[in-house]
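Archive entry. Fields below.
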Amino acid sequence: MPATDHRLTTIEMARFVSQGYLRFDAVVPPELNAAALAVMPSVHERKSAAAVAGFTGHGPVGDRGDQAVSAARISECYPAPSPFGEFLRLPPIAGVIESLVGPDPSFDHDFVHHIAPGRSVGQHLHPDAIVDSTDPTFDIQLFWFPHEVEPGGGGTRFVPGTHIRRTTSAATAKYQHVAGEEEFAGPAGTVLVFHHGLWHCGQPNPGTVERWMYKVRLNPCVPQVRLWNLDDFDEVHNDHTDHTFATPRADSVAAQLRRMFPWEGTDSSRYDLVERIRLWRYVTGDESFDADYYLSRIERRAALLDA
Amino acid sequence: MNNSRQQVLQLWLATGALDTNVTAWAFYDGTRGEGPPLPDGSPPYATGVEALEDGWRLIAVPGPLPADSQTGELHQGFTFERRIDMS
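PREDICTED_STRUCTURE:
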């Protein structure tokens, strides 16, 4: 449950760092879902035609019909009346955005995704992270499902925890299935918020109804440090003694980060945990943070030898 | 005329040992669905050894893992095949 000011709590933030996504069921009200669905077909048609033209050189190259352009602050995008602007300014959505990439982040791009009923072709698993830097900064991607998606209905498939892996779309394409993968199903107005590196793919639509989804990518304009609601921070931000083989806590940030995912190998899960610790250090600015003593063991070595 | 067709199964395992858990998988079917399917289940086999017990032949094993690539692609990918007589 988000904090009263709609920003994330520390535990929610730790969950994002751990699993690479958060989910908010039916957070968008029905009237806004309906407004979006009313314009999605025309927006999809225009943006798809422009994208195809850009790749092939045939068609309406240079279509600039959007009310949002890359590098604009989102406060400058989609002025009212616009269902996409209203979505971005919705207090629960704005609170999550601020928690992860700061107030008024930079608009990267958006797209309306459509899968026709009966379409049997899906995407390969991929991260949206082909040319990203290797520093710990991250973009977020919001996936807004304006209508219900039933279990088995072919909702977006994704693999929790994979955002920590540095790989490419071509490399992840070979994994047809990954243990622990999830397939979105949920009520209308549900929003998934992804770290840009999370592996995901669009799926076939075995049903008889059109499937629509709005996806927007945002870039931070400030260091992503302690941007969420910190009311619970001191209570849950553990010290280096939170060690699973010594004195583990069940209610701490470390408890969130040490969670293993089914696709992780026995040893590789420890490397992944170290990367999650490093990401938590970035978002907190606390370079002494640790879980299960992995980094403290190394960093304290010189001091121990000198003692 | 060669009437056999190849089915290929790739299994990524938790470690370099064939008797550890499957973490990811992919299946390519040269019989276009006329050969035997994979068992139901996610994953279809719990371990690499289970695939051997079901008649799959191991044809490729993973190479050494570069020390600096631990948090990149999934490692420990094994490739199996079976030849299906289509006559």
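CURATOR_NOTE: Chain A touches chain B at residues 164-167, 171-172, 174-179, 262-268, 271-272, 275 (CB under 8 Å).
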